[in-house]
Every structure is written in structure tokens, then in C-alpha cells.
Design goal:
The chain has 10 helices and 40 strands. The protein has 803 residues and is mainly β.
Length: 803
């Protein structure tokens, strides 16, 4: 899709809104109101409802104005006290008109004197105030302007964002029919999505994908949802589903300067529908292979108090079983061998407004999940059962935002199968996180057109993790960070955004800096084009797995093991360094036309100290003599080597570009496409080996079309293609753990959805969705990772109803 997906319904509604406002300014009220009504049908917006009421009032159509005002006030807007005064003024005018009409009628009923002239029975019109241009409640006249909050931690136009930013809209989610968040991300230029099993997807941006991908920071409503043990995100364990999502913002490029560690190559922020917004409803779906989906939600606003509660269930099967039935040479875990993922969830969010610009938010969620995932190194096919609980609170005002979130994970994890006599590595990881963040923002206006939007903040994150294969008594980590950002504007067309952050990382025992600077030039007077040049640094610190691992790995040859540990008996002073990235980007955005949007970007990444699995260091006779190695009394196996982690001693260079566009010249039909180029080069240092892998396809293409009709038919067709890859992975062999290369063929995906909405106001809808429709027809079913399942076709049918 276009990197700025504010086209679709939003652009069409904006077009009608602007035409309506132009009519109203010229005094053509009825045509103007008709255009505003059309905009509000396409995409309802409170400011449009308000402007309709104002236009009716200015036109002297007082009964219609009263009805429109009451419709606006029925949703308890923040400015309801001011608008109530306006309504009373219109009602007073209407009462005066009725009084004059009654007086004129009584005069008309009196008999006229003989020879006198007939009385004038025309009712004099109620004087209307001088025509005024209705003012939108917010955002200037462009009430349908798209905004992003993730790139700078404040609302701004994508044209002003310091990073390349993609928005997946609610329309995209609805028309695609896709219920997996990673598959929604696939349509974004530069995103790498690899489905390994029915419950496991690895997602990265602009390269660097891996199992348990850990270089993309994932947020829900601005709060971190990754697991700190592995550094990855278990997408199918979240307590929300796609029906609760307002939009997904994807920041392409480093974001550590405002978000801290792990915003290494990008950020994904999933923003849910606000309490009190939208309608209540239910959606259910069934599909082949025991697929199931259910979601029910209720939302309401009463005055300043609003809530939204949702619950749901999803089930996805595996595409292929890892172990054929009837095997007698393996032991199996107590897990369904055909299950990819299952999730039962509940989420409750509420908000309380205090005045026009202050609010409190409270909420919490629970999810019970079963996942089939792939571990790292020689560990594949893991079954995880996890309970995740979270509670969150926030205060928001014009200048201060304070957020707190606590989450707790309790899981049981083990390999799905192992050869007889080998361990399933059963463990019970438990994780607790506490996040506290305070942001301060203000705008300063100086002389000669200079303005500055300053934002700064401090953050704290507690990490407490217990796991069977960490060192004894792993520490409780206290992470602290502080950042400041200045978005300066010089006149109307030139801006400079600069940000810097310092993070204390306990595992590194040091403070790590991050920085970003972006120059933005808007060459056209309408300011709907932007040229950007940016440079940024970011980092990723070690996860708990990388910092405190202490795990014996059993080899295929019985009685032998490798001790994989973050600490080295043969090198006591060893300590991992943080992964570091230096990135540069050039970008051009064109939103000058309401029919076509265009985005072009070119980038370069220089990556050093990448954390990776270290080659096994065989135990030497001198180490045995010093007491290192030998028989492990806890396992009874003989230690023949040591593994763990190391920083890459080479430099990775990643060059690429992205081209995306969207065409909405025909109302109800949207066409979108994008192309991404990614070239990864490794520069060995000294005698370091070159891994020689290309884990990101050099070329990726996304093309799609969306259809919306006035009689209820709607749908989407998308085509995805990416070229071949080469992965270097560690595998356990009879002689030890070795790195091997695995080529992967390029593949394509064809997805489609067709739906029909019916009943008054299109409250009910039926739809059918097919994902990977061509699997196995033209080519073998695609494989997105060397160890992953071959990804087959999936078909589902849905029914939805909104109250």
C-alpha cells in the first residue's frame, strides 16, 4: 500500500467536505450541506456534524439546525457546553419565528374594516446573523487530515514526521479480511514478514529478519508489548484483535532517539479504537483446518465517562505437522500436534474527561494463549502456553502525558518433540514489567516565522524474569531513559527536527546515547509535498536470553552436551556490546492531489556489533585441567564445548529504496502498489568469516485494489511477491552445533476478500476471505523460513453485526 494510506474513504470524504465548505462560503447553503452530508456518510466525523448544524443555522433553516445540533450533542462531545449555548440561541430564534407566525395568523383572522386594504399576511423572516463560515471543531478545515503519533510521540501530519511512516487504516483492515496483524504489515513497503508456523511470525523492517525477530519495537497504544526474555513479539498472544484496532502506524527507520532501546530499525504502534467511539458489535468466522475467529465488543459514552470492553477467540492450525503420527522413536509433549495458535482474550478500557483538554484512562487485559513457535539456534518447534495480564493508567493534557503499565506473563514452554532419551527442555518462564513514562510538550513562537514544538520526557522500565535456563538469581533490571526533541519551523516551508536520548542499560552497565536529525522542505505553497533528509543512530541491548543464559544443550550423540552461556569460563572478562546502527535516509512525499499519493525513499544502514550466536568453542585439555568442562553433575552428560553469544566482528551495510503510490480517482475504487529494494553486504573485519546470507529478499512487490459500493458490495484483492533468500542457521549435528546455509526460493501470495453489507445502515455483513489462493497450484507452497512450514491456502467465512 502507499506509505501514507490516508487515501481511500478519508480522501473521498475530504473532497466532499472541501467542496461543501466552498459552497457555504459562497452562500450556497443547500449544495454545501449536501456535500457535507455526503462526506459524513463516507466517513463519519464529529466536526462534519457540527458544521452541518452551523450551516443550517446560517441558512435560516432552524428546524433542521436544531435536529443537527442535537445529533451532534447526542455523542457527548468535549465542547458540548459551548455547542449547547449555540443550540439554545437557535431554539430562541425558532421560538421567535413561531411567535411571529402566530401573531401574523391572528391578525389574518381579524375582519377587515369596510373599505380598508387587506392586511399583509406575510410572516416577516427571523433575522439571521451575518453569514459566517462554519468552523471545524478541530484540525483546521482539513478535518480528515491523517495524523501519526509514533514518529515523534505527538500528533502530526505524515509530511512533518521525521521518519518514513506508513498507516494501515481501519478500512484496510476491514476490506482485507485478514485477522493476523503480521499479515496486515506485509502490505507495507520495506516490511519483512515470515510465517514459520500457524502461530509464529517473524517481522522486521528493511532487512535483518530472524527467528524471534528482535530489532522491531512493537507497541500497543504506545506501551511496549514485546517479551523481554527473548526480545521478540508473540503476535498471537495479544489481548486485542483486529476488530478493536483504529489504525496501525509503522515507522520505518531507527526510533531509539525517542523510544529508546530496541527501536533499532523501526517501530510498530497498534492504536485501538478509543472508549466510547464507534458502535458495539460482534463478528464470527470459521474456516478450513479448524480455523475459528470470534470477537464481541461494547462501547458507550455517557457525558465525560466512556468505556470499551471486548472479548474474543482465535484458532489457527498448523499448515504441516512436524512429526508424523505413529512415530515410536520420539517423545511428544502434551500439545495438539495440529494446532498453530489459540487465543482467548478479554480487554477493558475506559476514559474520563476532566475539562476540554484533560483526561484519565484506565484499563486492563487478559489473554490465554497456546502457540507453536520456533526458538533460536538448534531449538525448533516449541509449544508455549502463556497467560498474560496487563493493567494500565494514563493522564493526558495539552502539555503533560503520564502513562503507567504493569504486565505479568506466566508460561509453560517445551519442545513439541524430541528423540527418545533427549530432553524436551521444559521450562516455566515468568516475566514482570512495569513501565512509567512522563512526556512534557509545549510550543514556542518566535519572531520572523520561527516556531518550535518542544517535547521531552523520562521513562522507567522494570524487568524481572525467572526461567529455568538463566543464571542463578538473575538480576531485576531497572532501565531509565530521558529524551528531548525540538521540531523547529523556519517560515512556512522549512523545518528541522532534532532529538536525542540517553538510556541506562543494566546489562551493559552503561549509558547509551541515540540521536536523530531531519531536515524537511515543503516546495509547494499548499505544503502538500515534502522533501526530507535525515540521519539517525539507534541501538539494541542484550535480551535476558543473551545477557543471562546458562543452558546445557544435548547433542545428537548421546551423553554429550554443549554449555551455552552468556558468561565464559574461558574468558571471564567477556561482555556483549550493544548492537548499533547509523542510518541515513532521503525521502520525497507528494500529497498535492486528492487522487494520487506518491512516496519515494532511499536509505543506507551501517550496522556494527550485531549480536549473534557464537560458534561452539571446543573444550581443551588445559580447560579440563582447570576444572572447566567434564561431566555435568546435574545432567550426567559430558561437556565437550561452550556456546553462547558474541558481537559480529564485521560491518553490515544495507542499502535500499522504496516506491509507493495510491490512486483514488474513482470514488469507491482504490488502487495501491509499492516496491522495495534491499541489498545487504557484509564487510568482514580481520579474520572474521562472512556468513554469506541474504535473509531479506532483494526485491518485494505489493499490488492491490479495494472496492466499496453504495449498495453494500465491498472487497479487496492483493498480490505480494518477493525474490529468493539465503539463510545461515545453526543446527545440531552428531559432532556438535554447526552453521549451515539454506537457500529459499522466491514466492508469491494472492489474497482476496468479498463482502456484502445489508440491513438498514449496513449493520450486517457477510464475507468470504481466501489467503494464499494460489498455494501449490503454479509452484510448490511457499516456505518463508528454512525450518518453517510450507504455507498453504486458508479460506474463511465471516458474519458481522453492529448494534
Amino acid at each position: 500500500m502507499s506509505p501514507h494510506a490516508h487515501a481511500d474513504e478519508r480522501s473521498e470524504a475530504r473532497r466532499h467536505f472541501e467542496m461543501g465548505m466552498a459552497h457555504i462560503r459562497a452562500g450556497r447553503y443547500l449544495p454545501g450541506i449536501a456535500e457535507l452530508e455526503r462526506a459524513n456518510v463516507i466517513l463519519p466525523h464529529p466536526s462534519v456534524r457540527y458544521n452541518i448544524a452551523r450551516a443550517y443555522a446560517d441558512a435560516g433553516m432552524l428546524e433542521e439546525a436544531v435536529a443537527a445540533y442535537r445529533g451532534y450533542l447526542a455523542r457527548d462531545p468535549e465542547d458540548r457546553h459551548t455547542v449547547t449555548d449555540e443550540l439554545r440561541a437557535v431554539e430562541a430564534r425558532l421560538a421567535e419565528r413561531a411567535k411571529q407566525a402566530a401573531k401574523a395568523k391572528s391578525v389574518d383572522c381579524e375582519p377587515a374594516a369596510s373599505g380598508s386594504a387587506a392586511p399583509n399576511t406575510e410572516v416577516p423572516p427571523t433575522p439571521a446573523p451575518a453569514p459566517s463560515t462554519p468552523k471545524p471543531r478541530e484540525g483546521g478545515e482539513d478535518v480528515y487530515r491523517e495524523e501519526v503519533v509514533t514518529a515523534s510521540r505527538r500528533a502530526q501530519s505524515p509530511l512533518d514526521a521525521p521518519n518514513s511512516t506508513t498507516i494501515i487504516t481501519r478500512q484496510d483492515i476491514h476490506l482485507s479480511g485478514i485477522t493476523r496483524i503480521p499479515e496486515l504489515l506485509r502490505r507495507v513497503a520495506g516490511m519483512d514478514v515470515a510465517q514459520l508456523t500457524g502461530g509464529d511470525a517473524s517481522v522486521s523492517v528493511r532487512g535483518l529478519n530472524s527467528r524471534l525477530s528482535n530489532k522491531l519495537l512493537v507497541l500497543v497504544n504506545g506501551s511496549i508489548v514485546k517479551n523481554d526474555l527473548l526480545g521478540s513479539t508473540f503476535w498471537e498472544s495479544l489481548p486485542i484483535d483486529v476488530d478493536q484496532i483504529e489504525r496501525i502506524e509503522v515507522v520505518r527507520g531507527p526510533g531509539s532517539s525517542v523510544h529508546g532501546a530496541d527501536a533499532f530499525s523501526g517501530v510498530v504502534n497498534i492504536l485501538t479504537i478509543a472508549p466510547g467511539e464507534g458502535s458495539s458489535g460482534v463478528r464470527a468466522g470459521v474456516g478450513d483446518g479448524t480455523q475459528g475467529y470470534g470477537s464481541v465488543w461494547a462501547t458507550e459514552r455517557r457525558g465525560d465517562v466512556a468505556f470499551r470492553v471486548s472479548g474474543g477467540y482465535t484458532r489457527y492450525p498448523r499448515w504441516t505437522r512436524e512429526v508424523a503420527p505413529g512415530r515410536v522413536d520420539v517423545s511428544l509433549a502434551d500439545a495438539d500436534p495440529n494446532l498453530g495458535a489459540e487465543n482467548v482474550r478479554l480487554d477493558l478500557r475506559s476514559s474520563i474527561r476532566v475539562g476540554n483538554d484533560r483526561s484519565f484512562e484506565l484499563g486492563g487485559g487478559f489473554a490465554r494463549s497456546t502457540l507453536d513457535i520456533y526458538g533460536i539456534g538448534p531449538f525448533n518447534d516449541y509449544a508455549v502456553r502463556a497467560d498474560i495480564v496487563d493493567a494500565a493508567a494514563a493522564f493526558r493534557s495539552r502539555h503533560v502525558t503520564a502513562r503507567a503499565r504493569y504486565s505479568y506473563l506466566d508460561a509453560l514452554a517445551r519442545e513439541n518433540h524430541a528423540y527418545l532419551g533427549h530432553s524436551l527442555y521444559e521450562a516455566t518462564p515468568r516475566q514482570q514489567n512495569l513501565d512509567l513514562n512522563v512526556d512534557l510538550t509545549n510550543v514556542f513562537v518566535g519572531p520572523r516565522g520561527l516556531s518550535q514544538h518542544m517535547i521531552g520526557g523520562v521513562g522507567y522500565r522494570l524487568k524481572k524474569i525467572d526461567w529455568s535456563y538463566l543464571v542463578d538469581a538473575p538480576p531485576v533490571e531497572h532501565h531509565v531513559g530521558a529524551f528531548v526533541q525540538d521540531a523547529a519551523r523556519f517560515g512556512e516551508r522549512v523545518g528541522l527536527t532534532a532529538s536525542g536520548r540517553l538510556d541506562w542499560v543494566p546489562a551493559l552497565r552503561g549509558v547509551i546515547p541515540s540521536a536523530r536529525a531531519t531536515l524537511i522542505v515543503k516546495p509547494d505553497a499548499a505544503k502538500r509535498q515534502a522533501l526530507k533528509a535525515s540521519v539517525a543512530t539507534a541501538f539494541r541491548g542484550p535480551t535476558f536470553l543473551e545477557a543471562y543464559l546458562d543452558m546445557p544443550i544435548q547433542l545428537q550423540l548421546g551423553g554429550l552436551e554443549v554449555q551455552s552461556s552468556s558468561r565464559r569460563d574461558d574468558e571471564p572478562s567477556f561482555r556483549l556490546a550493544p548492537e548499533k546502527i547509523l542510518a541515513g535516509e532521503l525521502q520525497y512525499q507528494n500529497q498535492a492531489s486528492d487522487d494520487v499519493q506518491l512516496d519515494v525513499a532511499a536509505y543506507y544502514h551501517r550496522i556494527t556489533d550485531r549480536i549473534q550466536l557464537a560458534p561452539v568453542r571446543r573444550t581443551t585439555l588445559s580447560e579440563l585441567g582447570a576444572g572447566v568442562g567434564g561431566v555435568n553433575p546435574e545432567t550426567g552428560r559430558y561437556r565437550v564445548g561452550s556456546g553462547g553469544w558474541e558481537n559480529s566482528c564485521g560491518i553490515d551495510h544495507v542499502l535500499g529504496g522504496e516506491l509507493g503510490g495510491r490512486f483514488v480517482g474513482v470514488e469507491g475504487l482504490d488502487l495501491f502498489a509499492n516496491y522495495a529494494l534491499n541489498v545487504a553486504l557484509h564487510e568482514p573485519q580481520g579474520d572474521c568469516p562472512d556468513p554469506g546470507d541474504q535473509r531479506t529478499s532483494r526485491h518485494k512487490v505489493n499490488v492491490g485494489a479495494q472496492l466499496r459500493t453504495g449498495f453494500g458490495l465491498n472487497g479487496e484483492v492483493t498480490f505480494h511477491y518477493q525474490t529468493s533468500q539465503l539463510w545461515s542457521e545453526q543446527v545440531a549435528t552428531s559432532t556438535g552445533i554447526e552453521s549451515q546455509s539454506f537457500p529459499l526460493a522466491g514466492y508469491h501470495l494472492l489474497n482476496g476478500r468479498l463482502g456484502y453489507a445489508f440491513l438498514p445502515e449496513r449493520r450486517a455483513e457477510v464475507s468470504a476471505v481466501v489467503w494464499n489462493a494460489l498455494a501449490g497450484l503454479l509452484d510448490p507452497a511457499p516456505q518463508m523460513h528454512p525450518f518453517g512450514n510450507r504455507i498453504g491456502r486458508r479460506v474463511m467465512a465471516f458474519f458481522a453485526y453492529k448494534l
